[in-house]
Amino acid sequence: MNINKNYKNLNENYLFSTVKNKVREFAEKNPDKEVIMLGIGDVTLPLCPAVIEALHSAVDEMSKKETFKGYGPEQGYDFLKNAINEYYLTRNVKLDLNEIFISDGAKSDLGNILDLLGTDNTVLIPDPVYPAYVDTNTMDGRKIVYIDATEENDFLPLPDFSQKCDIIYICSPNNPTGAVYNREQLKKWVEYALQNNALILFDSAYESFIDTDDLPNSIYEIENARKCAVEICSFSKTAGFTGTRCGYTVIPKDLVFDGLSLNKMWLRRQTTKYNGVPYIVQKAAAAVFSKEGQKQIKENLNYYKQNAKIIADTLDKLNIKYTGGKYSPYIWLKCPNNISSWDFFDLLLNKIAIVGTPGAGFGKNGENYFRVTSFNTREKTAEAMERLYNLFK
Ligand code: PLP
User: Fold this and answer.
1) Partner of 43 for a Cys bridge, out of 64, 219, 240, 382, CB 3.0 to 4.6 A?
2) pLDDT tens per residue, range 216-231
3) 351 contacts 333 by C-beta, under 8 angstroms
4) What is the position in ligand 1's atom list of the atom closest to the CA of 171?
5) pLDDT-based confidence at 40, cuts 50/70/90?
6) Which residues line the pocket of ligand 1, CB cutoff 6 A?
């Protein structure tokens, strides 16, 4: 039996375990100090009432012979695909229902989509980045080329037309930097992909944090993106589904490589390897698009955005440089005096009992940066910012 030796090339990710150990040690030594976590990448507000109501009613349906559901369509129920389709129409993006596939979240599909793509492709990944892009490609043995997301390019790298790549990852709004591409910038990536016969994997997991028409929520708002991009999205951050699990992937029928349709290949893959998202969960996800659902999730998103504003305002007052926070739950700040991201982590923990995420955990360009999130409570976020202000003023 030959093992997949590519797994030997995976870097151990010590980031979150090291953070946890350091916090535990600190708490043991300082039982009187309240540690405030601003490293949370998970939502904290509960599911909204419209979603809970839909869950209860779907459970009741499962209890009656007449409405019980067994296996559903692997690619998702039409009621949810229709709701997603309507949502895209509000942005003037027209999709065919068969181009939408329901999943148990973005992470699974980001990994699974690679089943369709040759391992001899070169992959372009921004640095810093959500680590799953790197690890899933390393597992398959693909060659990875990094593109720098730095202060110089506002953390929004643009294509180098002299460099040939086949698969491109774009995450906008970005984790960890919170930076968001505008239409002109995404247009350049679409141009590059079309010129190179490349495929863009567009991760829009945080699109619902964009509440201005000036920025695109979907790559399909860009002309011809249907010919070169797959979009992967999720209800995790939009509606607090991190534990409930539901997302969707859009694979346009225009994506044809070597005479093979990616849409058909994905359908074949899903019907072979997957049996779909629970009916109950799909009903809950559909409720996100109801009038009440939209109103309620926006209230939750605004709560996080207000927290982000409290953080951003404090950094402004302290003259600490940062990006993100406006259309994203993440704020990516430059460590004062250019100290390393782990030194900054230790400083905040030991002096003011605040925990964030060292940028070095997201790639080499994160070395002097630090990620804080807006997912804690209003009270704790405000308290954390008061401590930060008093430390640096
Ligand atoms: N993509 C990005 C950029 C993320 O930050 C996350 C989760 O934090 C995911 C995808 C995964 O989302 P899901 O919960 O839908 O698997």
Assistant:
1) 240
2) 999 999 999 999 999 9
3) no
4) 3
5) confident
6) 41, 105-107, 130, 171, 175, 203, 205, 234, 236, 242, 247
